[in-house]
């Protein structure tokens, strides 16, 4: 009997213009949490897609319990009790939770669907593993954290023993991340084996037994987590020392660039307002962070001020000019850049090329068109400049289809496009979600650089480290209202947490702190 439940030996996978996996060997022991670490585009998701049968390798083989197996598609993987939670969930949005979980393995008698026993099994699994879900809720109506629970329940319903988690915490709140870590520890205690792709070194230190590091498609090494440090792992990952502290001088706020007064945005899910009478200002040369647990109105506030959703009350100004009723394009031309929360839904046209995505908000300008015809050469040169400047990695450069790029490089492309427009106000929603430590360090430097050049930056983040390190002023949002304003130099993470959870709030008129 082999020591390893899964062995991926000498795996090589090529795509046009790139070797995604170059002779990689990965060995997973039974009952361990094995982290897979690497920069954006290092080949982690590709390697796991090979194991799950989504890709076929050009070279190498896969063994399960010491015997060579052939995995032609995900059905073969499921038959071998291998399951995968993908970075971008594979759920049918108009189906219910229950229908998504049983899709492909529907229980039936004489051709008739037997949902009653499927529902009982799903409820039993959700109770056993602490994955509370509403089986009848539609996927499109539930949060991303809930959607991830559905993906995990899909694996458990199929009785998978080898569980692959691809960037599972990229879209979760800090509380949901803690819950997921507990769930993973529970799986390990049951003898399940977990492959865990992540960029977050804290999570590896908290939950993983061993860690394999990839860099630019090559195998760098495997280490015991107990015997290493975050600094050593980050150096293995990016090939240099990474500065975890954001270097910045004190801000020197100038004139008010953006002003929101009494903004109210209705909720799409219930009768209460998602945003209720919110007023705030962002000045030139400062980074204001809107912090809060996901689902407390930050998303709706940004959608309201950028024009993605209609506000039901309130007004907004840019440099003293009322822009409440301006269109999205008008706001963009006036100087608002927006790094959206959902890069697939609002950030990119996935089937367009990288160069087309980089000029999405400027293609009508004279430098890119003449009498209605796009100047292809001008677009290409502009794209190549941004690709180099922001280190956007793709197999075929500017002509790469956005859909085929890694999640982190898709994010870098959006950031490159929005910052290069030279905005007056940069609205950055979760700008480092799904990025590796090297890329996070770079993006934070870009945000500080924008601030130092006199731009106003409104940052929306769930990452408390980011909130504390990058912002000059912190506003906490709870249930659609601003409940506190803080200086990151004087507030503690614990204090912020109390406001984010609704346990405390400040009196708006006096700044006096009150117990809620």
Which features would summarize this protein structure in a list?
single chain, 516 residues, alpha/beta, Rossmann fold, six-stranded mixed beta sheet, 26 strands, globular, disordered C terminus
General description of the model:
With 516 residues, this protein is of the alpha/beta class. It folds into 3 domains: 4-238, 3-Layer(aba) Sandwich (Rossmann fold), CATH 3.40.50; 245-335 and 423-516, P-loop containing nucleotide triphosphate hydrolases (Rossmann fold), CATH 3.40.50; 346-422, no CATH class. The protein contains 17 helices and 26 strands. The chain has a 6-stranded mixed sheet with strand order 6-9-10-3-11-12, with helices on both faces. A 6-stranded mixed sheet has the order 18-21-22-15-23-24, with helices on both faces. A 4-stranded antiparallel sheet has the order 2-1-4-5, with helices on one face. Helix 14 packs parallel to helix 15 (437-452). The longest helix is centred in the middle third of the chain and has 16 residues, at 174-189. It starts with a strand and ends with a strand.
């Amino acid at each position: 009997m082999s020591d390893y439940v899964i062995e991926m030996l000498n795996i090589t996978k090529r795509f046009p213009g790139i070797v995604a996996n170059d002779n990689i060997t990965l060995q997973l022991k039974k009952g361990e949490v094995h982290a897979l670490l690497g920069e954006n585009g290092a080949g982690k998701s590709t390697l796991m897609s090979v194991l799950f049968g989504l890709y076929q390798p050009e070279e190498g083989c896969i063994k399960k319990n010491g015997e060579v197996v052939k995995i032609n598609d995900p059905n073969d993987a499921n038959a071998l009790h291998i399951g995968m939670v993908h970075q971008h969930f594979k759920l049918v949005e108009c189906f219910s939770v229950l229908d998504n979980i049983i899709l492909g393995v529907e229980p039936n008698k004489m051709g008739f669907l037997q949902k009653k026993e499927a529902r009982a099994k799903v409820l039993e699994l959700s109770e056993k593993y602490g994955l509370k879900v509403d089986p009848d809720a539609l996927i499109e109506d539930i949060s991303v954290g809930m959607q991830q629970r559905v993906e995990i329940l899909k694996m458990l319903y199929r009785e998978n023993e080898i569980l692959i988690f691809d960037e599972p915490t990229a879209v979760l709140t800090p509380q949901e991340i803690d819950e997921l870590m507990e769930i993973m520890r529970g799986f390990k205690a049951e003898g399940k084996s977990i492959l865990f792709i992540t960029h977050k070194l804290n999570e590896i230190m908290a939950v993983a037994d061993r860690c394999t590091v990839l860099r630019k498609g090559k195998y760098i090494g495997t280490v015991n987590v107990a015997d290493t440090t975050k600094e050593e792992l980050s150096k293995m990952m990016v090939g240099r020392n990474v500065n975890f502290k954001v270097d910045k001088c004190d801000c020197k706020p100038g004139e008010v660039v953006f002003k929101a007064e009494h903004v109210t945005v209705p909720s799409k899910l219930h009768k209460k307002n998602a945003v209720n009478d919110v007023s705030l200002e962002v000045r030139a040369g400062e980074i204001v962070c809107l912090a809060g647990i996901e689902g407390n109105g930050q998303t709706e506030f940004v959608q309201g001020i950028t024009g993605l959703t209609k506000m039901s009350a309130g007004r907004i100004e840019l440099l003293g000019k009322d822009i409440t009723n301006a269109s999205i394009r008008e706001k963009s031309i006036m100087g608002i850049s927006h790094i959206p929360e959902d890069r697939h839904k609002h950030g990119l046209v996935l089937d367009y090329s990288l160069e087309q995505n980089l000029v999405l908000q400027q293609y009508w300008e004279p430098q890119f068109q003449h009498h209605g015809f796009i100047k292809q050469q001008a677009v290409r040169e502009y794209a190549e400049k941004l690709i180099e400047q922001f280190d956007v990695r793709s197999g075929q450069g500017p002509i790469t289809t956005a859909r085929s790029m890694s999640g982190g490089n898709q994010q870098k492309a959006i950031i490159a496009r929005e910052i290069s427009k030279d905005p007056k106000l940069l609205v950055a929603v979760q700008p480092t979600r799904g990025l590796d430590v090297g890329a996070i360090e770079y993006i934070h430097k870009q945000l500080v650089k924008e601030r130092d050049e006199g731009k106003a930056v409104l940052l929306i983040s769930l990452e408390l480290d980011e909130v504390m390190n990058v912002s000059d002023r912190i506003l906490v949002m709870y249930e659609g209202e601003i409940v506190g304003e803080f200086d990151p130099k004087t507030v503690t993470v614990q204090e912020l947490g109390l406001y984010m959870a609704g346990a405390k709030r400040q009196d708006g008129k006096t700044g006096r702190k009150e117990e809620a």
